[in-house]
Amino acid sequence: MAPMGIRLSPLGVAVFCLLGVGVIYHLYAGVISSRIAGFRQKKTVDLRDLLALSIEASIQGGREVKRIREDDTLEERSKGKTKEGASEKLTLGDLNSHRKMYYLIKNTYPYLQVNSEEHDSSDGEATIWTRNIPDNVLNKIPGSKMVPSESVTVWIDPLDATQEYTENLRKYVTTMVCVAVNGDPVVGVIHKPFTGYTAWGMVGQGANVGPRGSYNANNPKVIVSRSHSGKVKGFIQQAFGNNTEIIPAGGAGYKVLALLDPSDDEYEKADMYVHVTYIKKWDICAGNAILKALGGHMTTLKGEEIDYSGSESNTGGLLASIKIDHKKLVSRLPPWDENK
Asked: What pTM was estimated for this model as a whole?
């Protein structure tokens, strides 16, 4: 007897194929519908929505950063050398946080330019934003703030202070998102994975963090990178005197929060933030936006505004301050050659 087989009519084949498509659609319907909605709204985007999305992305990335550190599954390796010759660390925390943050934003707004410190060859995650806006954002920003989509650049730092992360110096670690419009930083989010604290600001609308009551410009405390503290010491002392207190710290996000008055108590208190070497824009954009939302400043050492629409690199050094005459601070700085 010939072996029995199953034969499908053309109609049966069609039904089978449709069922397969249906399963795939069910799995990715959220992402597909979100992308369709995104393309329909391609001409403009709401900055308030981007702020809420940035907060959610920072928190989701932060969960990965915290989980991998606590599980001690860092899978640490080097991704090369920094411009100063130090080993640049990469961990599973960096990569998993990147995947959560990058794909959450790209699945929601596929047409926006998103620049991340990390890169990933995977197919991505089927994560979508719920479009829930936190109450504290709604209270500060009651209405939409529409801008042309082509003017927007999003900067992501999935894990700021990776060196400190590998050393288990958790207080320095942050996840950050910044939204720039025509190169100007207008939305900034800095999230601390190990405490759950999130600071955000939107230029012209407000922030959930504020400055301290007073700052000392004559005898300042200056926060600097702990990996370059020796290089910057002479520069700062020449500007502000040999008795100037210098605070070495990790992470650009942490250093900006040290200028403010966050509800998180893990910060040294600084009067200004100075950086004299090459730094990437995803490290500084979020802090720049928050300071700007509060009336503060972050410029190059020559007092120039930093453009966040082009190259990923800032080579002009960095001076950040709030509630101090920023131009006067710039005038006190000695000449600096970024090519030193």
From this structure: 0.86
